[in-house]
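WARN no homologs supplied; continuing
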Amino acid sequence: MQIFSTFETSGFLEMAISTLEKRGIPKESIFAVPLDNRQESRKMFDNLHRSDGTSLIDIGMGLATAFAVIGASVGFKLAWGPIFWGLIGAFAGFVLGFAIRLLVVLVIKKNKRVLKGKHSEVILIVDCEGAQAELVEDILWSHYALGVAKIR
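OK structure emitted
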């Protein structure tokens, strides 16, 4: 039986391996594979097949609505009338909101665009007998494995 688990690179991984060896699992049956994490920065704009859940137009739509109402209200007193000034206000509000959101995402949250959460950095594969599987799984969970899977 093979048991796969993922760990962050930490002392808990080393302690899990040494505990497995103390409990009778030979060194030849334990295999650790380090993973290469993403080095390139994430893409800014979404496409049809991939979305990161960050919207760039949310602030722009809100400001477009507000500026359109203000532009239409003021437009009753101006030469072009409320419709044109409402459209001008909507366009100006959208551009301002989009620019604010783009600035926030590019400058302020630049470091947060990397993958969020904990990253699996090491895959630990343990080859053991079926009777030892429960013991191995308990050892891995007690040493803070991110995930564990058994294959018979």
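The helical segments are 11-22, 58-75, 82-108, 133-142.
OK
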